[in-house]
Amino acid sequence: MKCNLPRERFCGEIEQVFAFYKAMPTGVTVSENGRIFVNFPKWGDKVEYTVAEIVGDKLCPYPDMKTNITDYNNLSKTFISVQSVVADGQGILWVLDTASPNFSKPIKGGAKLVAIDLSTNKINRIYTFSDDVVLDTTYLNDVRFDYRVGRCGYAYITDSSSNGPGAIIVVDLYSGRAFRRLNGAKSTSPDPCFLPKVEGEIMYNRSEDGTTSPAVTSADGIAISQDGKILYYCPLSSRALYSIATEVLRDTSIPDRYLEKYVVYMGEKGASDGMITDIKGAIYAGDYENNSIRKILPDSSIKTIAHSPYILWPDTLSIGPDGYLYFIANQLHRQSKYHYGRDVRVKPYSLFRININELPAPTK
Q1: What CA–CA distance (Å, rounded) separates 232 from 205?
Q2: I want to staple 364 with a disulfide (CB 3.0 to 4.6 A). Which of 13, 147, 185, 333 is the partner?
Q3: Mean per-residue pLDDT of the chain
Q4: Would you say residue 219 has pLDDT above 80?
Q5: Structural contact between residues 266 and 243, judged by C-beta atoms closer than 8 angstroms
Q6: Coil, strand, or helix at residue 131?
Q7: 8 A C-beta contact, residue 221 and residue 272
């Protein structure tokens, strides 16, 4: 084949920040002081610690190794399987523990949202959930915060269930009260017409026994506007972007069955896992079907800021104080569950960054 034939064009100057040669990461977050934290859910890899800080060229269990060893007699204070870490820009690292290793039914009493003080590296509050909030089918995925409402602010969490209703879980950070919103709604559910195509292949669950089934996942990506008034979200199994006023989500006088009329369909953005917003209101979203990172401007126009053969399943996104967008590329679609039991991932997994010259949206 002649090497001077036309070929696909790539764009964006991405830089590898860290290479992972052991367990597969899903989440990354960068604090206001530039500290970088990552997490490793227990999906079948040997996970020594489910939360870590990148210190130089090493991974250090965070906040310590003891917290990363599951104590079944003290589930609320030890991690089980963490899906997401989020630094809030106010000195707190939030850890979202699914309590669902290998996507099992959540271990009773183990699903939680944990606040760690970055100045002391100590846990200062733990939020657990009742059985009517974290269901038997729930998979806690990602979380965003706004401290400008209520006495201590609110958190918004996606339930990305693959075999039950998707939802947005709203948490009052003062009282600890949590409740489900948009439970099983169209906008939090997989698109029944969606057929994901990654690296030229249709993505299905493919078991060792040869059986196949659709790979479907509910609400996953989540971002919040720079003023905290709008929540953006998307099912993993969809190319659509949706939004809703956070005031409406918090207002429990509006029955959940009526919430759908407040949802705004914002068009297609590509199929995304992670999303994040900057200080000017732009939304950044991965496009795992096209090895890309998109920027969605406030006027709804979309720009591709990175397109590369190295962006193999862009997962979580985070904006650092240095004006860079950080993101994990973890080859999620190459896991054995999608390839008849054969793991086709090739290490290392990567933490990349690209200069966007913007700061993260504030939480306060």
Answers
A1: 28
A2: 147
A3: 97
A4: yes
A5: yes
A6: coil
A7: yes
> What pLDDT does residue 1 have?
58
Cβ atoms within 10 Å, residue 349: 25
Q: How far apart are CA 75 and CA 62, in angstroms?
A: 17
> Who contacts 93 (Cβ-Cβ below 8 Å, separation ≥6)?
29, 31, 37, 62, 85, 86, 87, 115, 116, 118
Residue for token digits 């995304």?
A: 272
pLDDT at 223: 98
User: Helix, strand, coil proportions of the chain in percent (round to 5)?
Assistant: 10, 40, 50
Residue 303 has pLDDT above 90, yes or no: yes
DSSP structural state of residue 99? -
DSSP state string for 40-89: ---SSS--S-SEEEEETTEEEESS-TGGGS--TTSGGGS-S-EEEEEE-S
Domain edges within the chain: 15-355
Could you tell me the pLDDT band of residue 39, with boundaries at 50, 70 and 90?
very high
Q: The domain 15-355 belongs to what CATH superfamily?
A: TolB, C-terminal domain (2.120.10.30)
Q: Is 276 helix (H, G, I), strand (E, B) or coil?
A: strand
Q: What is the mean pLDDT of residues 156-178?
A: 98
Q: Which two tokens stand for residue 90?
A: 């106010």
Please choose, from the candidates 259, 331, 273, 354, the residue with its C-alpha nearest in 3D space to the C-alpha of residue 23. 331
For the chain, helix (H) and strand (E) counts, in that order, are 1, 28
CA angle 205, 209, 212 (to 5 degrees): 25
| Secondary structure of residue 208 in the 3-state scheme | coil
Q: What angle do CA 112, 116, 118 make, to 5 degrees?
A: 160
- pLDDT band, residue 2 (cuts 50/70/90): low
CA distance 158 to 177: 16
